[in-house]
Amino acid sequence: MSTTTPPPEHTAGPTDRSTAELTTRPTDRRASAGTGALPSLARVSWARTVLELRQFFRERDAVVFIFAYPLIMLAIFATVFGQGGATVGPEPGIPFAQYFLPGMVATGVMLSSFQNLALSIAVERDEGGLKRLRGTPMPPAAYFLGKMGSVLLTSAIQMVLLIGLGSLAFGIDLPSTADRWLTFAWVFVLGTAAGAVCGVAFSSVPRSGRSASAVVTPIVLVLQFISGVFFVFNDLPTWMQRVAEVFPLKWLAQGMRSVFLPEEAEAFEVSGSWQHEATAAVLVAYLVVGLVLGVRTFRWQRRDDG
């Protein structure tokens, strides 16, 4: 007598749970029971955003690095370089903490958008999660909108933490006019959006999820050193300034300096002005280029899957 061994039960992983939440939620089934219609793109995108946030905060090491790194660097630079009331620029000068806050804000945006997505998507692809998602009824656009939504929210949390630390611990003066906060808003949104789409596009560069960190992290560190994040931008060699101008982090940091530094600091810039028009143009250009490259190069499965 032969015995048939039942197939092993499938244990749902994070991606399987993601699919289940998006496609079989009771509220969605009730809403579409009479018409057979799938949930709207907006509804699925919001559900995906919530799920992305949950998954992000479950990865404790990534959360600690992305949130704590700019805070720690701001505290170090403000404490070390600000000893004895040292300042940047001609007398009376700008306190070091005040000068370095905009660079750390720009770094926080890049970590939460570009680095976060470039790494996480590469890992999801390598583990087969993207391939499984592609086979579900979820619209592909909902996946990317969910990523964008989670990045905007995590970046906003990052900004609150950084600005709060600067104000409470180091006495940094915050903008007091609506114009300054409006500038902060459009620089933040454009910078986050450009970083996110570039992160999606760059996620196809690493050959595997394991190598993603080795590919992405050095690029982020180098850009921080040449873009006026760790050093006064005017003090950098001219050739380094020219290289930095090609990349968005320099413009993001300069845009943030126009928000948090006093008006007289505009004269400290290499060009002698904040260059808001150039900042907007560069960030929009990276947003468009990132979208085009992302559409043309994004892969839902590993290279060895064919």
UniProtKB/TrEMBL annotation:
GO terms for biological process: response to antibiotic. Residues 16-25 have a biased composition (Polar residues). It is a multi-pass membrane protein. Residues 1-34 are annotated as: Disordered. It is found in: Cell membrane; Membrane. The chain crosses the membrane at residues 62-81, 101-123, 144-172, 184-202, 214-233, 278-298. PANTHER family: NODULATION PROTEIN J (PTHR43229:SF2). This is Transport permease protein. It comes from Actinotalea soli.
